[in-house]
Amino acid sequence: MLPMFKSEETITGKKLSIRFLDGASDSLQAVLDKHGNEKKHQKWLATLSAALCTFAEQGNVTCPMKVSVAGVIPKSGGTAANKLSKKRKNLRLYGWYSDKYPKVFIVSHFAWKLTEKTSKKDLNILSTNWNRVEGEENE
Amino acid sequence: MSSFFNSFITDKDEFAKDFYREYLISSTTEMFVQKIKEREASYEDIAKGMGKTKGFVSQILCGNRNMTLKTLSDLSYALGYRVNIGFESLPESFQSIDDLLENNYWQASDLDYTPELSIKSGGVIYKEDEKFWQKAA
Predict the structure, then answer these.
(1) How far is residue A117's CA from residue A24's CA, in Å, rounded to a whole number?
(2) At CA A102, angle to CA B28 and CA A27, rounded to 5?
(3) In chain B, what residues touch A45 (CB-CB under 8 Å)?
(4) Percent of chain B, pLDDT > 90?
(5) What's the pLDDT at B109?
(6) Is B40 left (phi over 0), alpha (psi -120 to 50) or beta?
(7) According to the 3-state scheme, what is the secondary structure of chain B?
(8) CA-CA distance, B14 to B3, in Å (whole number)?
(9) Which residues does chain B have within 8 Å of residue A10's beta carbon, measured at their own beta carbons?
(10) In chain A, what are the domain boundaries?
(11) Which of A125, B25, B50, B136 has fewest C-beta within 10 Å?
(12) Taking the CB of residue A135, how many other CB atoms lie within 10 A of it?
């Protein structure tokens, strides 16, 4: 496993493994520092982690959080950026299905979003992270 | 073992309670979504099978409406399944979310007969044979 992943953090299900990039935890902490309170944080995290477990176990998740396409990762050759988000809630997870590692979903970062559209900033973070994991320097 | 969320959890008991509820919702809904795909059924077909509107089915499967046990059973029945619910003891403690999910506790069992209004490959089958009712009873 590449050094930017910690194996003990991986969520493994029957259909997928979900790996978190090394900056993902900091981006989640940054969102929680700015939004909500401790009680809300626990509920958000329970919903998020339960959705990720369903995603890993069944290969998809649609309720109450949904995996959907968020755009195309710049400079990736067409790889779709995916997001895990919930209606009316603003904590969002960005990532992609790895080409390099079969049946692995890579979590790039978390963000607080008020609009449906994926921002350039998030796409740029995805692009940088995609290159770190899938780029030629890691062949 | 996934320790990713460990450092964010401040109240393990409260987190576990919320996690189990959210996992039940997401995993149950996803099972239905996948069974519907397997049956190649549309929301309209299922709505007919349940005697409900397409909007009702959509709201149930998109998480905008809480699913009652009655709806859970009727939706399963329309797809040709019965619901089988079991209980598992909670772990005494947990170190990561993996410890919370040693066993899944919801499953759908195949019916051993075809219900009157069941979805098969995208269509609703109307079964009117009286013998069916004797067997079902």
Answers:
(1) 20
(2) 70
(3) 5, 8-9, 15
(4) 28
(5) 53
(6) left
(7) CCCCCHHHCCCHHHHHHHHHHHHHHHHHHHHHHHHHHHHCCCHHHHHHHHCCCHHHHHHHHCCCCCCCHHHHHHHHHHCCEEEEECCCCCCCCCCCHHHHCCCCCEEEEECCCCCCEEEECCEEEECCCHHHHHHHC
(8) 17
(9) 2
(10) 7-134
(11) B136
(12) 14
Q: Is the ipTM of this complex over 0.95?
A: no
Using beta carbons and an 8 Å cutoff, which residues of B are at the interface with A?
Answer: 1-5, 7-11, 14-15, 18-23, 25-27, 29-31, 33-34, 61-64, 97-98, 101, 104
Which amino acid is residue B56, in one-letter code?
Answer: F
Cβ partners under 8 Å of residue A23, min gap 6 = A109, A129
Whole-angstrom distance, CA of residue B96 vs CA of residue B9: 10
The phi and psi torsions of A60 (rounded to 5 degrees) equal -160, 165
- Tens-digit pLDDT profile for residues B89-120: 888 777 777 777 765 444 445 555 544 444 44
Q: How far from chain centre, in Å, is Cα A106?
A: 6
